[in-house]
Amino acid sequence: MKMIRKILLCAGTGLLLSTGSLQSVPGGIFHMYTAYGAESSIIETMSIKFDTTFGDPEEIPQPQITISGSGVSIGDIYYKTEYENWKPGKKVRMEITVDAAQGKYFPVSLGRSKCRVTGADFVSAKALDNTSMQVKVNYTPVTVLGDTALAGWSSHDSEKAVWKKVDYAPGYTLTLYGNDKVVKRMTVTSNSVSLKEYMTDPDKIYYYQVKAVPVTAEQKKYLKEGEFVTSQEQDIDDSAEEEKEHAATSQSCSTGPGVAGSLKGDNFVMPDGTLAVNTWKLVGGIWYYFNAEGNRTRGWFLYGGKWYYFDGNGYMKTGWVNTGNGKWYYLNPDGDMKTGWVNTGNGKWYYLNPDGDMKTGWVNTGNGTWYYLNPDGDMKTGWLYDKNIWYYLNNDGSMAVNRSQDGWYLGADGAGRKE
User: Fold this and answer.
1) Is residue 181 located within the same domain as residue 226?
2) How far apart, in whole angstroms, are the C-alpha atoms of residue 97 and residue 333?
3) CB 61 within 8 A of CB 142
4) Are 337 and 331 in contact, with CB atoms under 8 Å apart?
5) Could you give the 3-state DSSP secondary structure of residue 243?
6) For residue range 181-213, what is the model confidence (pLDDT) as tens digits?
7) Are 261 and 275 in contact (CB under 8 A)?
8) Coil, strand, or helix at residue 220?
């Protein structure tokens, strides 16, 4: 038979009643304390640890929760915010049920000094009954920032660096190089920055490296910086210098087999003084198209049933390009716009809509097969958790249907359920 100890502290009478005895004590306010079981069976302290180990880039790991103390163990764990909705730095309320071992009992509550919490913020610890206690904490999810998928230059400003945003990134560290030597280091909070004031030497080849980083001391508690990504190389906007040089020296420049002429302003002047019109010209390794008026073409241009893009200087672009509308396009090495599936040489597949812009999210390419493209546009493979449903994407990216995978059955719609 377990002993139940009751203590009565009586105001005014100066009496203490304890297990049937009557003793004199200093006067005070009346209180009554009840604890279940013998005094040695009462759980007076415990410690709960939340392990905030960082995982893979852009992974938001669930914490490993451990408890220490005499006669206690962790029971149910409840997240007030569903796991798939967690965001780094945004606190998640957790409710942990702590169970008492046989013969052990909880008091009505424990304060933060008796219920020590590390790796999360203590809120409360209150008994649900005499053998279980609910501990509430606020946990801050953490992550390692990912890498930008694309790092390039604005099609409207050849000296403006532009890159794809990284999920959860509050800022970016950028290092500008000229002929492989550091020109400028900076931290910015947007995914573009003008480098015009630092790109001043027309004899240098410039490029930059950029990575996602936390900015404030508070952000550094739950975010770790990503890895550097290197941009394409870029010459500075030296068209004016080229034009001055051509005007001063009247030097002919080769534009192709057996063809000569020179750039002057927006035009290409042939040796006989006429302007080149409705034609391509290769000048200094850069392709231009001169329209019916003899001017350089800028922006999108349809030629021979294919789309090409020329930046603000009239340079034909290749590779990934952001035209300023938030959409990304891929231009083949010969400059024509790519559509459909493309592997850009980095081992990743992307899908470009019929109008050329890069697709993200779910896509059906017309053969009845579904694919999923990550926020950076690259094709997903393996397990995917989307809107509370598990899917499996095969090695070729196609969504698995009507079969088993790793103990799950994937239905006709791809949704997985435990077998």
Assistant:
1) yes
2) 61
3) yes
4) yes
5) helix
6) 999 999 999 989 999 999 999 889 999 999 999
7) no
8) helix
**pLDDT value at position 219?**
95
The Cα angle at residue 230 between residues 225 and 231, in degrees rounded to 5: 125
Instruction: Name the nearest CA neighbour of 171 among 210, 115, 201, 205.
Output: 210
Collect the ranges in the chain with pLDDT lower than 50: 1-37, 238-259
Say which DSSP state 63 is in.
Answer: P
- Please report whether residue 276 resides in a domain: no
- pLDDT on residue 256: 43
Domain assignment present for 235? no
3-state secondary structure of 100: strand
Phi, psi of 135 (to 5 degrees): -105, 125
DSSP string, 377-416: SBBP-EEEEETTEEEEE-TTSPBP-SEEETTEEE-TT--E
CATH of the domain at 392: 2.10.270.10
Length of the chain in terms of residues written: 419
CA distances from 261 to 23, 257, 285 (A): 114, 12, 14
Residues 18 and 45 in one domain: no
Query: What is the reported pLDDT for 39?
Result: 53
How far is the CA of 369 from the CAs of 77, 130, 343, 391, in angstroms? 39, 56, 19, 13
User: Is residue 410 within 8 Å of 400, Cβ to Cβ?
Assistant: yes
Cα 139 off chain centre by: 20
Q: How far apart are the first and last CA of the chain?
A: 47
| Structural domain boundaries, residue 23 | 5-35
Amino acid (1-letter code) at residue 127? A
Using DSSP bridges, classify how beta strands 382-386 and 299-303 pair: parallel, antiparallel or unpaired.
Answer: unpaired
22 HSE (CA, 13 A, CB side): 3
